[in-house]
Amino acid sequence: MELNIALLAGDGIGPEVIDQAVKVCDAVAKKYDHKINWTSALTGAAAIDAVGEPYPNETHEICTNADAVLFGAIGHPRFDNDPSAKVRPEQGLLKMRQKLGLFANVRPTFTFPSLIDKSPLKQERIEGTDLVFLRELTSGIYFGKRGREDNGETAYDTCTYTREEVKRLAKKGFEMAMARNKKLCCVDKANVLESSRLWRETVQAMEKDYPEVEVSYEFVDAVAMRLVQWPNSYDVLITENLFGDILTDEASVISGSMGLMPSASLGEKTSLFEPIHGSYPQAAGKDIANPLATVLSAAMMFETAFGLQEEAQAIKNVVDKSLEEGIVTEDLAGDAKAYKTSEVGDWLVKHI
Amino acid sequence: MELNIALLAGDGIGPEVIDQAVKVCDAVAKKYDHKINWTSALTGAAAIDAVGEPYPNETHEICTNADAVLFGAIGHPRFDNDPSAKVRPEQGLLKMRQKLGLFANVRPTFTFPSLIDKSPLKQERIEGTDLVFLRELTSGIYFGKRGREDNGETAYDTCTYTREEVKRLAKKGFEMAMARNKKLCCVDKANVLESSRLWRETVQAMEKDYPEVEVSYEFVDAVAMRLVQWPNSYDVLITENLFGDILTDEASVISGSMGLMPSASLGEKTSLFEPIHGSYPQAAGKDIANPLATVLSAAMMFETAFGLQEEAQAIKNVVDKSLEEGIVTEDLAGDAKAYKTSEVGDWLVKHI
Ligand SMILES: CC(C)[C@H](C(=O)O)[C@@H](O)C(=O)O
Ligand SMILES: CC(C)[C@H](C(=O)O)[C@@H](O)C(=O)O
């Protein structure tokens, strides 16, 4: 099979971790007789520096023509704490999500037995946790009308959803629940927000099409609590853009394996795969960042974008093996030897 | 001193826990030679049943004429999962907040040494946690324009903030930080939302008036993570209404003492004190609910509304003592004897 993949390394540790994922993908491709055509493109602060735009048209062209996009991370401290900055790396991210139509962000949270003691939660709370969030990614308050009034003294943002947008996301949620443990939680704030009431009534109307799925409706504040108390009580959760932003990040730290969590953003035509960690500028260029979240994002890509289960499993297996054998970067090494980013990549390639 | 207090018991376990707080307040008043005039009023589902309105005008009159309001809990399952319900208990809550001008919700999270093993977090993560959230409570997306368009197919909500609203809340935050550990965290989503950029620039401009306070700015998603990872790294946090709703609830479960957490809602003229737990309808009428959060809310009332530190401390001390001696309701009893709600109240009164 010929796989056309756009490669967006981005900022900070992005390029380093992406390098390892590319090596691993190439090794898998070789083993299973595929051919990968990688096309690199600029994004984030790197793109602002080069062409004054965080998501240049050329990058968009490359992504549109690819079968899938593998993404590193974007963001640079230079743009933080400056509310007046005109161009920001984050704008590139939002523009990319919208222009590529990546409406469903898939964020799993699961545990690795060998890392469970890294969790801030007690073992009995976190054990067995295996949940996945589906966050709506191209609408809501992220993309609504916003601005200032009264000479800048008043600011507003608008959260808008259409029934079609909710349906499209919820459909993926129901399907995912069917393929997993048949439990779906719709997270909203229907006791206050009109957009949430649209979410809830739309999902309620879809229940009859998936009679096997047990659906629950929970307020976002209640979910923020239960995620810390009983994360293993959840299976699939669906939610709107902003709630998803907050809750998926909250969920990501409970497993203790934040540095390992992959994600996918699905669109009608193309899809994008990226580690959930950020650009971690303090570590950039030091060859110390953990590449496993990016490598596992590549595994998600094989599975989700290309339907190549075996290849995905091969990657997951070699990652498990590296963890068991302690071939890990300093964030996981504890008192044992810490390997470099590139050394972990090399080891994975060798053992694929 | 003569204390005029409006008493809003509300729904579910509200009346039972309020009863205990009233007993404790009366005992403290007797000891310190104060006179409390209690005036009860209807609210929540109870008020809907009686007069068709969750926050009747008569109740508002009573609250307005009081020096402080002591509140139980509202909410009834009969109104949940019914997006079409015309009148809901929650509307009463929102109307009350707005009509009484309760713009600052104060939500402390602290630990009780004797309860630390109830926390879902590992002891080393939670130890020493003593933070307080100031949540803006009368503006933002809770009170902005909302509605439907396209024959109900599109729903929208608006988040609006004025610079004055932000200043008013932030001022309380800076003052509270000065009285505590001089650390203030402004929680926003300034990389996306215009209203958040107004928050950030307003707080930044106030920094010079409080040179001793160390101010940090963090995105809401990052705070949702760090609250689970390192809750003891925070002191005072300020945030807008919806973020505050989610994060204060998340923060409330980390200590393991959720059933004990009090809160205050401060206005220009009056203030309201309530436990953070809900109406817990399953337990209503069974005399099993934990009254300590309401009792500690009464302590906050003595301190904050009336400036009576010693009286507040007397309540906190007797609560500590009851915990040490295991005079606790079933939620905290474990394998030991569980006391009834009213028995705990009686014990507190006796030992004041
Ligand atoms: C960088 C930011 C705009 C972005 C978001 O809020 O969506 C990030 O937090 C994320 O979740 O991918
Ligand atoms: C009941 C609901 C409207 C309310 C809110 O969201 O403010 C509650 O969750 C709270 O935090 O007091």
UniProtKB/TrEMBL annotation, chains A, B:
Belongs to the isocitrate and isopropylmalate dehydrogenases family. LeuB type 1 subfamily. The record marks 142, 189 as: Important for catalysis. NCBIfam families: leuB. Residues 4-348 form the Isopropylmalate dehydrogenase-like domain. This is 3-isopropylmalate dehydrogenase. Binds 1 Mg(2+) or Mn(2+) ion per subunit. It is found in: Cytoplasm. Homodimer. Catalyzes the oxidation of 3-carboxy-2-hydroxy-4-methylpentanoate (3-isopropylmalate) to 3-carboxy-4-methyl-2-oxopentanoate. The product decarboxylates to 4-methyl-2 oxopentanoate. Mg(2+) binds at residues 221, 245, 249. It catalyses: (2R,3S)-3-isopropylmalate + NAD(+) = 4-methyl-2-oxopentanoate + CO2 + NADH. Pathway: Amino-acid biosynthesis; L-leucine biosynthesis; L-leucine from 3-methyl-2-oxobutanoate: step 3/4. Its EC number is 1.1.1.85. Its cofactor is Mg(2+); Mn(2+).
